Every structure is written in C-alpha cells, then in structure tokens.
Amino acid sequence: LEFVDRIENINGQVSFTKSNISSDNLSANIWGIPITAKFNLTSFNNPLLNINIIFSLNMSFLQEILKEKFKFTFPGQIEGQGKLSLGLETQIPLRGPFQIKGYLDILDTVVKLEKFTSPVENINGRLEFTQEQLKWQDINFKYLGIPYKTGGLLTDFKTPKVQLVLTSQDVVLETNFAIYNKVVNFSQFTGKYLNSDFSLAGEVDTKDPSNLAMDIRGDSDINLEDLKKIPANFKNKLEQINPQGRVRMQFNLNGNLSDFKSCAIKAKLSSPSLSVYGLKSHDFLMNYNQSEGIIDIPLMHSSLYDGTIEIGAKMNLNSANPPYFIN
After folding, report:
1. What are phi and psi of 268, to 5 degrees?
2. Which of 130, 262, 272, 284 is 20 to 30 A from residue 23's alpha carbon, by CA?
3. pTM, whole model, 2 decimals?
4. Beta bridge partners of 207
5. Distance (Å, rounded) from C-alpha 128 to C-alpha 84?
6. By the 8 A CB rule, do 36 and 26 touch?
7. Is the pLDDT of residue 238 over 90?
C-alpha cells in the first residue's frame, strides 16, 4: 500500500457473512514493527473498509518515519516510547486517499530542541489527529525541573494555524498564530508570570533563523520584583539594583533583536511608584524612540522626594564610542 509500503507476516482469524468480512485480532509487521489490528469490510455492493491498527514504538523511530514518509523534519531529537492507534477508512475500490484518524500516547519522552540548551523532559499525554488537524490536552512535561501543562489545536498542515495554552505554577501563556511561507503571524500572545502580565501581536519572519525579522506591538504591566525570581545569569545584579514597583509599557518594535541598534522602536513607560538602589520616585514617565541607530528620549519625568527631574537625551549607536547628549 502506498501509505505504509509493505504489510508483512499477516496472521489472524477472519469472519465473514453474506454482507461483510471482519477480524477482531490480526497481527502483522509494518516498517518492521509488530502491530495488532482490527478491520471490517461492509456492504459488498458499495464496500466500505475500516481498519484500526495499534502498536508501540520508539519515538526516535517515529521521528525517522515522519521525515522519510511525510517529509516533516523535527528541529531536534526525540527519545522515549509511544503507543499509536491509527484508524483508516476508505471505499473499495479506492476512490481517493484513506480517511485517517487516531491518537498517540506519549510516555516519559525527552525532546532536545536545536535552539535550546536544556531538554524538555518527562513528557506524558495524548495527541489526537486527523488529516486536517492535531489536538492535544493535558500534556505534562518538565523544563528546567519545573512542571508544565499544555493544550492546543493545530489545523491546516500546509499553512498551519495554532491555538496553544501553556501553564505552570507561576506562568500562564495563551497564543493564536498562523504560519505561512515561514512567517509566523501572532493574532494573540498573552501571558502572566506571578504578578506581571503582557500582551503581544504581530509577525516574525523565520526564513533566516539567524536573522529573525520582527514587527511586533504590545503592552505589559510588570511587577519589578518578579524579575528577581527569573532564573538568569544576572540575578545577583538584579538583587543589588533591588527594583520595586510596577511599570506599564506600550511599544512597537520592527527589526532584528540580535542587531539591536538597527531596530526601529517606539515605547512609552510609566509607573506611579518606582524604586531602584533604594532610591524612590513617583509619577515616572519615559518616551523612548529609536530609528537607524539613533536613540531619542524626548522626555523622561520623575518626582523625587521634594523635587522633580525632567530629562531629554539622544545617543548615536552607530559610532564605535557612541556620542550622546543629555539635558
């Protein structure tokens, strides 16, 4: 068969009547893997064939099958075990491709993604699929020792559209995005971390992974004390700065973050109360503009104790020793 190449070593008992042929217990080998199967062929005048196949497999072998048979290359390495249930339905004689549906149970699997230094571990859950979509709910995993749960829906494999929810003890993320010609378009990307939250929309061009072109707009409400709880190399520095307060930010960003000075950025930051290094301020406001390597801060205002401060500044990032002025 075109879909599975060869089916070998078929054994089992087949029952038949005047109107159907069926079997509840067949064994065979597909791709060298032992399987069990059921099938039912009904209505000889207009035959309809249903086949259900169940087999256990190594997830690394499944990755090879996806690449070889379905031309899908996963960006990483998969290790673990799985149990696949595959349902096929077609008219006889064949009048088109099989109708396919089924599920994959993932058992204690580890995924090592190309762009991540740490693996995703202890993945357990069920993926349900048809030819048109992939659905998952309550899939559990650990990353950096922290338990997560995810659910979602992927439709239209040629131009994928994805709905995704990711939760942990401290994090909630929800996003809707579509991918066309390697451009990821986010209609929604919202998140919450501890007492902070954000919302984004826009698109990311991934044609060149080393040069991700972004056009993103968003806003956030950040509790600065939450930053100290993020695992990072500069955690000690954050503890010295000791940021406190809430900062509201609205921004537009266009460009490649790996080449920050080339980005076009417009941002507005505000905070009713802010503290860094133990210095307290109120009514903080800053407008930040950046274009073609020039940073322009037309206004930064803050009330400090019994006075106020207003600052305007510019800096040229294109120079080896960036010139600047501050009023």
Report:
1. -130, 120
2. 130
3. 0.81
4. none
5. 10
6. yes
7. no
